[in-house]
Amino acid sequence: MKTLQHKHIIKWFELASLTLRENKDYLTKLDSEIGDADHGFNMERGFNKVHNKLEEFSLNTDLGAIFKNMGMTLISSIGGASGPLYGTFFLQFGMAIVTKTELSLQDFVTAFEKGVNGVKLRGRASVGDKTMIDVLAPVADRLKESLSENNTFEKVFSDIVKSAEKSMKSTVPLIAKKGRASYLGARSVGHQDAGATSSYLILKSLKEAIEE
Amino acid sequence: MVGIVIVSHSKMLAEGVKELANQMSQNKVAVITAGGLEDTSSPIGTDPFKIKDAIEALSDSNGILVLMDIGSAVMNAELALDLVDERLKHKTLLCEAPLVEGAIAAVAQAMTGADIEAVANEAKHSLLGKQTLLKPVEEQVETDAFTDVVGKEIKITVPNQLGLHARPSVKLIELVNKFDVTATVSTKNKPFVAADSISQVSTLGAKKGDILTFRVKGKQADDLEIALKGFVKQNFGDPVNTIIPQSNKKVSKHVNNKLAGIGVSNGIAIGHAKLLKNMVVNVKKEKAENTLLEISKLKMAIEAVLNNIIDLQQKTMALYGKEDAEIFDFHIFMLNDSKTLDKVEQIINNDCLCAEYAWYTVFSDLENKYLEMEDAYLKERAADIVEIRNKVISDIQRDSKNDIILTEPAILVVDEIGPAQTLSLDTDKVLGIISMHGGETSHATILARSLGIPAITAVGKAISDIKENDMLAMNGSTGDIVLKSENPKKINVLILEKEKEDRVIKERFIKAKQPAISNDGVEFKILANVSSPKEAKLAFVNGAEGIGLYRTEFLFMNRESAPSEEEQYSVYKQLCENMKGLPITIRTLDIGGDKHIPYMGIGEENNPFLGLRGIRYCLQNIPLFKTQLRALCRISAAYQIKIMYPMVGIVEEVLSANKILREVQNDLKKQNIPFDKNMQVGIMVEVPSVLFLIPQLAKEINFLSIGTNDLTQYLLALDRENTNVSKYFSALHPAVLSAVQTVIKLAKENNLEVSLCGELARNQNATKLLSRIGLRNFSMSSPAIPDIKEVIRNLSINKDTMNSSVNEYFTTLGDVKSSFSS
């Protein structure tokens, strides 16, 4: 598969909503260990709103507009820090693909990078701070590499999910530098970051969305 | 004004912070909240759209300061900024200040009309107060050792005659505190000390010509340099021609242990001695069981003494004026000095000693530092230090033995007396003061002069010759002290001298009291302008035939809230007593324009001189106005007083003010409190519109008083402070003279008394000129009265009267001026 269609995007968002709902307690458990125990709840709430909008999204062919709408939906409904962060990711993503009705790998990679940069700026976090950036930034790098390899979306997404899973697990030994967990300092070591985990779950949904 | 947005995860918290901030600003600063989420099942969180709405709600503000609580609040606020339009984004600032402290500090600053940077800056520093209170002691030790700041070096030369004494020190510290800097200062290779600590700055002992070297760190170092240079130009706030008292002249030599000292406050007193030499505090070096308790005891005592001194300062301000009141700035700064308090706390904590002992040690060291100074003037500040030391210790020990209570008239014999003690003296009972220590420029001495109590200081050990109840005489002019038991003849001489002195004063007074009658028999009334009962005392001696203008606003200045009815009553009463029953015209509160009183809450105005000032303010603040009128009406029962409204421009204002006056009088009547039903009411003629309303106003009032300064500025539309236009600012301008002539004529036609109470009245040429256009009542600052009376006595009024308009005589200001030289 060389282009990402409108239906794939809708499917992605739908699967992400379901996955985050299923993993609500898991995320909450991770967040309760070193954070404020609201990540699972917040993500479920945000993606429930997204789920409610799927019908509206399917009627709109402009992918840029859908992503932006998605971003705004998350911003206005999540409440915690993940709202502005994921919201910014999708907003920035959307801005890079204005009026497009399908995406080439090049389109996707550029937009993804823009989204990640937005998150970095918004959260002022970098790799190693024990945040979602620990997952998203290596994925953006991996995506850029894939451009020269002339791979299919299936291959690329499979690669990035593997990379994301590895990155997610690599947050366990880190000391949190951002968010509520940073108040714990060294005590945050030994726990997997909830934000990195939700990022992994969202990317996993993306891979599954094109497999069906 | 700058508006504030409060962002919090919790709606209740945001609303609570807003409630606190509104209480601070009395709802004067717009505060909008963006708290919590709409989702009732999980209401905790921040919503960027709410924040965006809040920012947009303040779009009319001059700036928008956003204060946030934790975590995502910041991120969502940033996101909100991305969502608002560029114009709004530009004037919005996200501020890292702590939410509660920051909000309170921000509104307090915003109220003043400050810009967004200033408001943000204030918010950012809002933790300082709490930090200084709670900082662990270890840290304080470090900061104390850190006395030197490397940074910009600024050198200034001490310009004023008396050097860096108490008042300039206070002013210097105020100045340094205005800027965001850390500064240390030194002179003559002494170690650098903190430039914001009174205990350290005033002990530098810098004299005229000494070079002060500042080391300043901080982004406003350059601004401080400019301000310091300006401070030098202002002669450190001292008058340029300070006369250094020539002490030597007055010292009676201590030959053969002769009992004598420096005569510092004139007058002869004869009476029995009352010894109060036990004015020392007893402090034992006791271990503290609980150091925290000791510190809190100390802080409470400091607080109590501070409140007491502030009260005293306000009382002094009302009774004796600004200069005497400023004496207590030193006390206040000293009690607030964090460096000194740090030292005391260190002793309490490190050595586990009781608060009294620690305080005593630190202040005694400080006293010694002052005593070691070469400069006599600075040396005398030691008495202030001792007074502060003892007052706090007496408060901790709940000991009142240092209160001086006299049951019958006596001459007070003391080791040393402080300014606060001097002020607390009952002037009817204290005939004179003799002290072992002290000097000519000690604060207590200055106040003794204000109180008119003869005083002799620096008597030394010989003072022990005076025993309780000894009959003695003292001469405050020469420093002589005579004990009746040793020299009965000399005492008689002094009694004769006193009689002679009284006679001289009486004669001078009789002459001043002579009425001002021109050589062709026209009688003038010469009154005084005063701002305090002290000035009234002087006015009486100078022969004022009454007070033409008592400016009550000084009673309201330099304090946190308006004086109560009782406080006003006691000051007005003192004023009337000092004028021995002569008529007194009291002007109701005249603020606004250039007279600003922070607690009055007059906001920033584009044109304050055309804004809320004088009677306009009072009519909008009726409770305050009524309090003053009530105090005045009560005084009218026993003394001849008249009430005068300032800044009247239209008849409506007089109608409203009189209505309020009648309400006050009716209330008094109901409560059976006496007042004078026929008390006269008048207005200042300052606003030119009055010229066209005199017949109508005459139905409501009894007299007019022309205020030449404001009348000139409003009539000519010239700002006298503005050097571009002030060339023609003169109350002698033909236009102003013509207005005065019109007022006199219309007043006569309408049976109104008229007087003139501006600066013009003390100008002798002006007096002559004004007498020619028919003015007979002048009110001026009292030292000018004897001369003006003399000028009038030499005038021939009937011959020189201008029967036609002044405009026929003068066209330009130059014409008026050249008429003086001819």
UniProtKB/TrEMBL annotation, chain A:
GO MF annotation list: kinase activity
Alphabetized InterPro entries for the sequence: DhaK_L_YcgS (IPR012737), DhaL_dom (IPR004007), DhaL_dom_sf (IPR036117), Dihydroxyacetone_Kinase (IPR050861)
UniProt keyword list: Kinase, Transferase
SMART domains, sorted: Dak2
Domain DhaL: 7-208
PANTHER family, per database record: TRIOKINASE/FMN CYCLASE, TRIOKINASE_FMN CYCLASE
Protein name (Swiss-Prot/TrEMBL): Dihydroxyacetone kinase subunit DhaL
Organism: Flavivirga jejuensis
Lineage, uppermost ranks: Bacteria, Pseudomonadati, Bacteroidota, Flavobacteriia, Flavobacteriales
TrEMBL record, chain B:
Keywords: Cytoplasm, Kinase, Magnesium, Metal-binding, Phosphotransferase system, Sugar transport, Transferase, Transport
Subcellular location: Cytoplasm
Cofactor names: Mg(2+)
Keyword Transport: yes
Top-level taxon of the source organism: Bacteria
Family matches, as Pfam families: EIIA-man (PF03610), PEP-utilisers_N (PF05524), PEP-utilizers (PF00391), PEP-utilizers_C (PF02896), PTS-HPr (PF00381)
Residue intervals of the HPr domain: 149-239
UniProt EC number: 2.7.3.9
Gene3D superfamilies reported in the protein's UniProt record: HPr-like, Phosphoenolpyruvate-binding domains, Phosphohistidine domain, Phosphotransferase system, mannose-type IIA component, PtsI, HPr-binding domain
Catalysed conversion reaction: L-histidyl-[protein] + phosphoenolpyruvate = N(pros)-phospho-L-histidyl-[protein] + pyruvate; dihydroxyacetone + phosphoenolpyruvate = dihydroxyacetone phosphate + pyruvate
Record-annotated PTS EIIA type-4 domain positions: 1-141
Enzyme class: transferase
GO MF annotation: an example: phosphoenolpyruvate-protein phosphotransferase activity
Complexes and interactors: Homodimer. The dihydroxyacetone kinase complex is composed of a homodimer of DhaM, a homodimer of DhaK and the subunit DhaL.
Family: Belongs to the PEP-utilizing enzyme family.
Function (record text): Component of the dihydroxyacetone kinase complex, which is responsible for the phosphoenolpyruvate (PEP)-dependent phosphorylation of dihydroxyacetone. DhaM serves as the phosphoryl donor. Is phosphorylated by phosphoenolpyruvate in an EI- and HPr-dependent reaction, and a phosphorelay system on histidine residues finally leads to phosphoryl transfer to DhaL and dihydroxyacetone.
NCBIfam families: dha_pts, PTS_I_fam
Name assigned to this protein: Phosphoenolpyruvate--protein phosphotransferase
